[in-house]
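Here is one chain, start to finish.
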Amino acid sequence: MAYLEIRNLTKKFGDFTAVHDVTLDVERGEMIALLGGSGCGKTTILRMIAGFTAPFSGSIAIDGKSMAGIPAHKRNVGIFFQNYALFPHMTVFDNVAFSLKLQKLPREQISAKVNGMLELVRLTGMEKRFPRELSGGQQQRVALARALVMEPALLLLDEPLSNLDAKLRVEMQVEIKRIQRELGVTTIIVTHDHEEAVSLADRVVVMNAGHIMQIGTPDGVFDYPENPYVADFMGFTNLFDGTVAAVDGETVTVTDTNGNQFRAHDRFHTGFAAGDAVQLAIRPDNILPADGPGENVVTGTIQNVTYKGVVSRIDVEGVLKDALLHINIHNYDSGKAGARMDAKLPADKLLIYKN
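Its structure:
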């Protein structure tokens, strides 16, 4: 039995269905990321788990106990809000202790729990500071400590890193993962950032328009998205149409709309036949410079080179019929606008989907 069991969960707002028949299991101690763009239903699922919103249909059970009819304050769920929701007039200590005081625990027990949690989130010595005296990352840790001090059965994180700058986001990814592992608390994180999802979670759930599009390990979803929507969301910016010319076992030969011919592997065992309309997808990082003609090698003209620090982004025109081919190369001296370029799209990196 999974620790969190979601079965056929649906939520409607009038005529609009925000969540469509979602079923999901989360194991004890696991961290799951609900990943998707705005309006995909991920936060609505979080709110139903927390008890803030009632499902239209379906069920939620935590540790074998149905949550039907159980109000939010009795679910033993820790919530981390996107805006932290700290009390500005309270010190760090009092913010973290707030829920414990509502339970009227002995002062010594409250002090021990709060100080232990502040040590875990590395805020020892800041007990008397107010939120306005803290950095964004420190405020985030206070909010996390407040959610965890009640020793929740389940921790729900709603876009926890969205208000931080790039450097702090990376630091806090490490901290959240460390704290979650040390406590072993079952966790669901909602995010729109695919890099954040694959960095933090044990499994990633990609959503679109209230539906689950794919569930898998971070590397599985990142490297092998099962459909064009997930591919696009996970950074496969090169997606283009073609027609199957031939099939030899799991090797599929495709002619794209510009007349280029590519070989690709039927990785998902879809089963293709000559004449099928398909989409090909490849990540910019997986395209390689080539020296002359060869299998899956195309030639175009460099339209633009953008230095991005770790890589140079090269936009090549004349390869695809209605779009640029995007390539990331770890070499700043990789070409100049107007130059011709040969590029190889390796067959084992080229994904193929039925249209």
